[in-house]
TrEMBL record:
One record GO biological process: regulation of cell shape
PANTHER family: L,D-TRANSPEPTIDASE, L,D-TRANSPEPTIDASE YCIB-RELATED
Transmembrane regions: 118-140
Organismal lineage: unclassified sequences, metagenomes, ecological metagenomes
Descriptive protein name: L,D-TPase catalytic domain-containing protein
Pathway named in the protein's UniProt entry: Cell wall biogenesis; peptidoglycan biosynthesis
Organism: hydrothermal vent metagenome
Length: 364
């Protein structure tokens, strides 16, 4: 099978894309305008107009300010860009009080929920303690009926014994005493000898053997997606079948190769993590996929915010293979740890090759 390589595809010129996006905005089709502008900045990321217009259809004030910042880097003294920045800053300032109120309200409701939960648990604990105390008190209290009956029986026994003693004294006084016969003590016989004497003799008691309790079955161990931490080898990894699909990422050559067994079906350039944010190495399996996703690096302490990142395939924690529209410098490390690919190659792997569980072998 021949190896496929990335090829250029004819696209509309940037000016035509900008004109089509402007028409889509006027007709109220903001999502269509956003896709056209993203295509425009992919074709020419040095044209500040694409970034500036993309700010007008961004889904959040933060994204608008980020796009205007990129346009400002390309055209620092442009009056239109300065007006756009002032507009984006006002938009961001208006949105922040609403966000703060929403956060405060959600925190207050969460605190009330926690307080209510503790109150309910405390009440249940008090009820259980009270019920236990009442049960213990009733258990150790004497039964009045049983006490009266025991007292009556004891009194009757004492009276009967007194009468018997009086009768014995009277008989002893009237009848002369006779010599007492001496009783011979019976010899002691162990339990086995007693059992052989006769049917009328007592026999040893049988003891029931307790049934052993079942041993619990251990729970199965979950197999992680992370397989090997320090893999430095190329070639089909151990455990991958002769016809199984897998992906090899070579950081030293900045290339990605898709294999079926030992046959390469796609080879393309990539951009991995820089020296400050290196891409993790090892053998992994894809565990999560998104056709598009907004990536907010500020949540992890980074300085980027990217909307509608296409064909995202996570293979370890927040490391992913994905398409890239904000640069075209493939073959050079550019990312914060992810593996950047062209949108065409990422789309082919996402739609035609990889699935959840596909092996990803990353090495130097």
């Amino acid at each position: 099978m021949s190896v496929m390589t990335t090829s250029s595809i004819s696209s509309p010129p940037v000016n035509l894309l900008l004109k089509q996006a402007k028409t889509a905005v006027q007709q109220g089709h903001r999502q269509q305008a956003r896709r056209l502008l993203q295509q425009a900045v992919r074709q020419n990321p040095q044209d500040f107009r694409g970034w500036l217009w993309l700010a007008t259809v961004a889904q959040s004030p933060q994204a608008s300010l980020e796009y205007i910042h990129r346009a400002e880097m390309l055209a620092p003294n442009n009056g239109t860009v300065e007006k756009a920045r002032r507009w984006a800053e006002k938009r961001l300032a208006r949105s922040q009080p609403a966000e703060q109120n929403s956060i405060s309200g959600s925190m207050a409701s969460r605190n009330w929920l926690k307080t209510g939960r503790w109150l309910v648990l405390t009440l249940i604990a008090l009820l259980l303690l009270g019920a236990g105390a009442i049960a213990a008190w009733q258990y150790f209290q004497p039964n009045e009926t049983e006490t009266v009956a025991k007292t009556a029986v004891l009194n009757s026994s004492i009276a009967a014994a007194s009468q018997k003693d009086s009768l014995a004294v009277a008989v002893a006084t009237a009848v002369p005493a006779e010599p007492t016969a001496t009783s011979t003590q019976q010899p002691y016989a162990p339990a086995k000898a007693v059992a052989n004497v006769g049917a009328n003799q007592p026999r040893p008691t049988w003891t029931v053997t307790p049934t052993p309790s079942p041993t619990p079955t251990p729970a199965p161990t979950i197999v992680p997606t992370f397989i090997s931490p320090n893999n430095q080898q190329s070639g089909r990894p151990f455990g991958v079948g002769a016809h199984e699909r897998w992906i090899d990422v070579d950081l030293s050559t900045q290339t990605l190769t898709a294999y079926e067994g030992d046959t390469a079906v796609l080879t393309t350039l990539i951009s991995s993590g820089t020296s400050d944010h290196p891409t993790v190495t090892g053998q992994f399996r894809i565990w999560l996929e998104y056709e598009t996703q907004t990536m907010d690096g500020r949540l992890l302490g980074y300085d980027y915010y990217l909307e509608d990142v296409p064909y995202v395939m996570y293979f370890f924690e927040d490391y992913a293979l994905h398409g890239t529209y904000w640069h075209n410098n493939f073959g050079t490390p550019m990312s914060h740890g992810c593996v950047n690919m062209t949108i065409e190659d990422a789309g082919w792997i996402f739609n035609n090759f990889a699935t959840i569980g596909t092996m990803v072998n990353v090495h130097n």
